[in-house]
Amino acid sequence: MDGPEPHTLPATYLQHLATLVQRWGVHGPTLFEGTGLTPEDAADPARLVPVATVAAVAQRARMLTGEPGLGVYLGLQTYISAHGYLGFAAMSALTLRQALAIAAEFVPMRTGAFTFRLRIAGTTAAFEIIEHADFGDARDIVLMALLVGFWQISKLILAVDGRDSAIELVMPRPDYYDRFDGVGPVVRFERASNAIVFDVRRLDAPLATADGGSFALAREECARAMRSLESRTRVADRVRRLVVDRDGRPASLEQIASSLDVSARTLRRRLVEEGTSFVDVRDRELGERAKILLESSDVSIDEAARRLGYDHVGNFARAFRRWTGKTPTEYRKTIGRRLRSKSANGG
User: Fold this and answer.
1) Tens digits of per-residue pLDDT, 146-174?
2) By residue range, what is the domain housing residue 116?
């Protein structure tokens, strides 16, 4: 039985990586050797690359450059134009709140590997990244690049120095980050989520790059691209993007059917026609989400179970074994060994 297609990212993100590693004398043909891609592929704005390939190229870049903190450098050189019409829409928004709402709404036109959500607690706002794909040992490169890139872009559109915001990451602090202290953003490790956090008053501050007319045009272009994408995307993949809702909780079949403007019965039938089922799609996605949660030492197994909609940790443990062949505790031990080995090797 075929499952949903693998998560992808635009190939042009790899083009930005290829440009960066030239600083270390690594050029395109060498970077992409053995990955099935060419520099011309990376330059194709219409090409999508599976997450596994992105991770392989990122790891190869780290190996060839000998620079473990490659993700930080990649984030610091990020420009909003790297995100296409979505970046243009966010840049043209009237306020940061509007820009973040656009990013959360239209990120599926770029990738299904992440969703975004805005969370407000007291005087602090957090723009969180929810992971839906496993980048393996390249995870730190990808998350650093994404969040440091957000920080860099926010400085531009708010015309601020960025010192009143910080980045939070679920991963342990890598040894290499000591070299970046005081250079880029404040980064806090082993937190409950991956996010950029800032004073809530920033949300309604006018953007230095605001342009109402350009925003309307860019937003319509994003909406058109989303409609085109949905017309070409398998139902299973559209369901997978909606399995975890914007609050990070599992959505029901009925909720997802409503989001897709079909009945639950029609949705079941269309999934069967594609050789899968709602349960299969849901389990694949929740399995990936569960592994990502368990990689954070700040999230207990009980908390991971709760976030994924399980009232009893025993039910979660049984489901996790079905998904991965391991109990949550066994998986955590495996991850711990991998992280210790990576740290010992300077990665």
Assistant:
1) 999 999 888 888 877 777 899 999 888 88
2) 68-231
Residues in contact with 193: Cβ distance below 8 Å, sequence separation at least 6, in sequence order: 126, 128, 129, 130, 168, 170
CATH classification of the domain holding 330: 1.10.10.60
- Distance of alpha carbon 238 from its chain centroid, rounded? 16
**Cβ proximity of 254 and 123 under 8 Å:** no
3-state secondary structure of 95: strand
User: Which value, to the nearest 10 degrees, does the dihedral of the CA atoms of residues 276, 278, 280, 285 take?
Assistant: 120
DSSP state of 218: H
- Strands 165-168 and 186-188 turn out to be parallel
d(CA 343, CA 254): 45
**Phi and psi angles of residue 128, each rounded to the nearest 5 degrees, phi first:** -100, 145
Q: Domain check: are 302 and 288 in the same one? A: yes
What tens digit of pLDDT does each residue of 28-63 get? 999 999 999 999 999 998 888 999 999 999 999 999
Six-digit token string for 321: 């074994």
- Whether the pLDDT of residue 67 is over 90: the answer is yes
Question: What count of other Cβ atoms lies within 10 Å of the Cβ of residue 254?
Answer: 11
The model's pTM: 0.73
Among 131-145, 166-180, 248-262, which stretch is predicted with the lowest mean pLDDT?
248-262
One DSSP character per residue, 41-87 reads HHT-TT-EEEHHHHHHHHHHHHHHHT-TTHHHHHHHT--GGGGHHHH
Q: What is the dihedral of CA 150, 55, 82, 180, to 10 degrees?
A: 40
- Type and span of the H or E element at 196: strand 194-199
DSSP 247-304: TSPBPPHHHHHHHTTS-HHHHHHHHHHTT--HHHHHHHHHHHHHHHHHT-TTS-HHHH
| Residue 145 and residue 213 in one domain | yes
The reply to whether 268 falls in a domain is yes
**For residue 339, is pLDDT > 70?**
no
- Cα–Cα distance, 111 to 50 (Å, whole number): 10
